[in-house]
Amino acid sequence: MRRTFISLSLSLSLITMPVTVIANEHQSTYSKSAFHDVSETHWGFSAIQWGLENQIVSGYPDGSFKPDQNVTQSEFLSMLLKAYKVDIPKPTEEDTWDAPLLKYASESNWTLVDDTNKPINRGQVAKLLTNASGKNFNVRDSIHYLLDTGLSNGKTERSISGYKENDLLTRAEAIAFTRNVKTKLDVLKAAPTTEDKYNNPNSEIKDVQEVTWSPTDRQKEYATEVFKLIRYDIANQNLKVKVPSVDGKEVISGIAINDAKYQKITLNKLYEYNDVNSVKMNIQIVEEKDGGIFIVDKYDLYSKDKLPHYLEGKPGTNTEDIIVVDQYKNIVPLSVVLEALGFDSDNQNVQSDTSQESLKIPANVVEEDTAVWNPTEEQKVYGNQIFKPLTWDNETRTLSFSIPKMPSKNPLVGIQYGTKKEKIVLGKVYTFKNLPDEFKLDITIFTDETYTETDDEYTIFSYSLAKKHGWADGVPSTDLVVKDQYKNNVSLNAVYKALGINSN
Fold first, then answer.
1. What integer pLDDT is reported at residue 25 of this predicted model?
2. pLDDT tens across 125-151, in order?
3. What is the sign, positive or negative, of the torsion defined by CA atoms of 69, 188, 5, 148?
4. Which among 173, 154, 175, 174 has a CA at the least distance from the CA of 165?
């Protein structure tokens, strides 16, 4: 994927402010560190010394190297091209200092970021170095390639996650990368213009995980509209969102940024967020049919830290990208969704317009609950005893309840989740946390200990289990489904309303 670039003026401190120590590439005059902030035990000591000896980097007038200071794309390019002694012309008076560097990289088909004033992250460096090796892969494949070829050993460990693609590049890391590449790669190469897939069946990297999304035809129809205008810049933590209207359907969307309350999104307006640390967003496309409201398509979007507990650790969640959960509980990074739909993940695809605005904080946006329960008088008596102490927290997948003993009755209660079945003791308070997608709680009130006649009964299902059987119509996906003895299927919230129970 080719990207355009913008040359911006920037003074290159690591070139223009050298220390007074001079070395050549044949002889080292640095038996000890030349900088007061780089000890001989510093992990990057030898690479920094190598950079000095080969006149690739220098220090600052105060005798420091600033090994942890972040590096821009142009600063890294300068190191790399100096290491290979590439003959780069001097900039003209009209040019910025880095214009010749960017011109060389662009003509070599190397992927460049747009803002040369901002530090680059390690993922962008992986892409750049893979390009310089004559390859063109996406960021994840580029990291895999660097690890396999020994061009990198990762930051915390030799793995995709250990590479830390979203960490900003430091000066010490930049010169370490440069030395490593120079020792393993004879010449810098131009990259192919088209992106390819990297596959190494003999790879020793264990956390390589191919995550794909295969939407249904109906999902494609709606997702193509919805995701055409959603982009997340991982490196700079900038999010752009524009949720469109859909002909003949109602679109409901809300978002919470950086722990703020949910805000309703106005359709066809562009919203831009900077310094995004956390995201929760939902998009629902609904239609009215046969007197009810049905969800045609829906997506929940999360930053990794806001992912519901029951989804943590599942395939598709090991990413710093926005995580998308579709109505079928497929979990994929936003970039994978965009790729499946044939979109470029570059933020530039979402253009600003006159309808752009900053979001205020109106009421929460939730799926509409169309379920209504009309209990009998007998159901009200037993229902109040059962449902008053029963609570459900969808975010933490936590179900709490206590089924009381009932005079002259014999309640029989059991819960099933996964492969586990457990009999419930009457009068005991239970709290089940991190429940899986599918579980159910069976409550049957028998008239006596013979277990032959019943007065009332309920089965409380997780949404996913009820949906599998076709019992979740009109129930929000965040709620539980209650099935009574008359085969009425309603939301837990509808039960609360009918019994006058405060669900807060």
1. 28
2. 999 999 999 999 988 889 999 999 999
3. negative
4. 154
The 3-state secondary structure of 278-313, one letter per residue: CEEEEEEEEEEECCEEEEEEEEEEECHHHCCHHHCC
Strand pairing partners for 19? none
Question: What's at 112, amino acid-wise?
Answer: L
**Length, in residues, of the chain:** 504
Q: How far apart are CA 284 and CA 249, in angstroms?
A: 10
Cross-strand partners of 271: 241
pLDDT of residue 91: 87
CB atoms within 10 A of CB 462: 25
What angle, 0 to 180 degrees and rounded to 10, lies between the N-to-C axes of helices 99-107 and 73-83?
70
H-type alpha helices, 84-170: 99-107, 122-132, 139-149, 160-163
**Which residue carries 């460096």 as its tokens?**
125
Q: Rounded CA gap, 285 and 296, in Å?
A: 5
Residue 366 half-sphere exposure toward CB, CA atoms < 13 A: 14
Burial classification of residue 405, based on how many CB atoms lie within 10 Å of its CB (0-12 exposed, 13-18 middle, 19 or more buried) = exposed
Enter the DSSP assignment of 118.
Answer: S
Paired with 412 in beta bridges are 444
Q: What kind and span of H or E run contains 81? A: helix 73-83
Give CA–CA dist 242/238, Å, rounded. 14
Task: Give the max Cα distance, the chain.
Answer: 97
Cβ–Cβ under 8 Å, residues 440 and 420 = no
Identify whether the C-beta of residue 23 lies closer than 8 Å to the C-beta of residue 47: no
Q: What is the pLDDT of residues 53-111, one digit of tens each?
A: 999 998 888 889 999 999 999 999 999 999 999 999 988 888 888 899 999 999 999 98
Alpha-carbon distance of 255 to 265, in angstroms, equals 7
